[in-house]
Design a protein that fits this description.
The protein is an alpha/beta fold. The protein has helices spanning about 5-20, 25-35, 40-55, 60-70, 75-105, 140-150, 170-180, 195-205, 215-225, 230-240, 255-260, 265-270, 295-310, 365-370, 370-380, 395-405, 420-484, and strands at about 110-115, 155-160, 185-190, 205-210, 245-250, 275-280, 315-320, 340, 345-350, 355, 410. The protein is globular and about 55 Å long. The mean pLDDT is about 90.
């Protein structure tokens, strides 16, 4: 994009943001119009147009969610969200990433998940982090380097897990201030979210929290320890007090699926101020991890239907990490949309896949994306034509074992160094039981999926043609500059 043209467009966008608070229902549509010139991608333009339509539909739950942000979130946070998440991360960053994928011939993610520390003040049942060395951590300089290298590749979204990332709250807030063009999210147990931290997050405006919660008090304290639930709720209250952005994350398993997949529970979380919810399912990672907490096929099917019904009725943005495979064409790991860097620095395809070839302390981020295991992911994704069976471990266990062996990746479990065949054997039965259920669900989704996918494929082809022209122009300009 021409630098002068970009500056003019950015100035217009910033002026538009100033008027947004006066009449959001009217001015959101204008903001969308101001955003349009920032991207060449047809898929992004389609999403922006959909956003305008939502604001003209009084019964649309996403309209309710957007309006919630104007009554519950501070103006600084709203400005940062539109500027950093929508404009920088989803539009400008993704345009750059798309071009660099062609240039470097590798996956480049939209988001990076990393563990600032393995230290944690809880010991939750079924959490693999409990097996890690509590002293492992990435210092501020390394975290800062990863973010800087990521931005060079068009990555503006950074997520923290652990351990408990808020053990490092001072460093994380500092990073958010230094990289004020990025968006940050931390998965937290919520017990360390005091008044001062909530206030700091509202002030930086570009740092959200996802509180881990697994139902009401009894269900949450079952895995996380007595008294945890009350601390989580207090942390949410602190965030809401200052208009800081937050949502929840919930792991559904054999003992709590109906507790987290409950209309009353979701209504309660919306009342607390949650703007989004992120659902995961239990994974038996680590040699001591049992399979008794694995969700049954019936429970996973229940969540499939329940989450979709909630999206049609509740003013909150919900994700189901496994059951939403159809919307993202299967597995998003291995740098396709995200990757994971643990506290030791091992660059892993996914937070649930503890195998790696490289350590970020010894290689650049771009070099890590070319590692053998990541190349295996890029070569084999999607791992199943049925995108309701996206995971190479939980749904297609033989696939993970084959990729780990072909790449020569090693286990990053510091204590038990779990053999990939032993790990995948834990999921074989669950995968076999899920297969007929998922095939039935996929058959019902396929007609609509095929229609939407055809449209997306056509958009992608047109986008790629534009990209190739942009890439050629960049090379031609570089050649002219070298010649002169």
């Amino acid at each position: 994009m021409n630098t002068i043209s970009y500056a003019v467009k950015r100035t217009g966008f910033n002026l538009g943001l100033k008027y947004l608070n006066k009449d959001p229902e009217k001015n959101i549509a204008k903001i969308v119009d101001l955003l349009m010139p920032f991207t060449y991608r047809e898929d992004m333009k389609r999403l922006l147009t959909t956003g305008k339509k939502i604001m003209h539909d009084p019964g649309n739950p996403y309209r309710g969610l957007i309006l919630r942000t104007f009554s519950e979130i501070s103006p600084n946070v709203r400005k940062r969200f539109l500027s950093n998440f929508v404009l920088n991360s989803a539009m400008i960053g993704q345009d750059r990433t798309s071009m660099l994928k062609l240039k470097y011939k590798c996956n480049i993610p939209w988001a990076i998940l990393m563990d600032p520390t393995n230290a944690c003040n809880l010991h939750c049942i079924g959490c693999w982090a409990a097996e890690y060395n509590k002293g492992d951590s990435m210092d501020y300089a390394l975290l800062d380097r990863i973010i800087r290298e990521g931005k060079e590749l068009g990555i503006y979204f950074y997520i923290y897990s652990g351990g408990e990332p808020t053990v490092r709250k001072d460093d994380l807030v500092k990073l958010a201030r230094v990289h004020d063009d990025c968006v940050f999210l931390a998965f937290t147990n919520g017990t360390l979210v005091d008044d001062a931290f909530a206030k700091a997050l509202a002030e930086v405006g570009n740092f959200a929290l996802a509180f881990s919660i697994e139902g009401f008090e009894e269900a949450t304290d079952f895995r996380r320890g007595k008294g945890t639930y009350q601390k989580v709720i207090q942390g949410m209250r602190n965030m809401k007090k200052y208009g800081a952005p937050f949502g929840f994350s919930a792991c559904y398993h054999s003992q709590n699926t109906k507790a987290v997949g409950d209309d009353k529970f979701l209504d309660f979380l919306i009342e607390q101020g949650c703007l989004f919810g992120w659902y995961f399912t239990y994974m038996p990672l680590g040699k001591d991890a049992g399979t008794d907490l694995l969700a049954t096929p019936e429970q996973r099917e229940y969540m499939f239907h329940w989450v979709r019904r909630m999206r049609d009725t509740k003013p909150i943005f919900l994700l189901d990490f496994w059951n939403d495979g159809q919307y993202v064409n299967g597995c998003i790991a291995g740098g396709r949309s995200y990757l994971h860097i643990n506290a030791e620095g091992d660059v892993e395809p996914c937070a649930f896949i503890h195998y790696s070839n490289v350590n970020i302390r010894n290689v650049s981020l771009l070099e890590a994306l070319h590692s053998p295991l990541f190349e295996q992911y890029a070569a084999h994704q999607p791992f199943n034509k049925n995108h309701l069976r996206p995971c190479p471990l939980l749904d297609n266990p033989g696939m993970l074992a084959a990729m780990v062996k072909a790449s020569g990746a090693h286990s990053t479990q510091p204590v038990d160094k779990e053999d990939v065949d032993e790990l995948t054997a834990k999921c074989t039965s669950a995968a076999a039981k899920w297969t007929p259920v998922s095939e039935k669900l996929w058959a019902g989704e396929l007609p609509h999926y095929s229609e939407v996918q055809k449209m997306k494929d056509e958009e992608q082809q047109r986008n790629r043609a534009v990209l190739e022209k942009k890439l050629k122009k960049t090379k031609d300009d570089a050649s002219l500059e070298a010649a002169s």
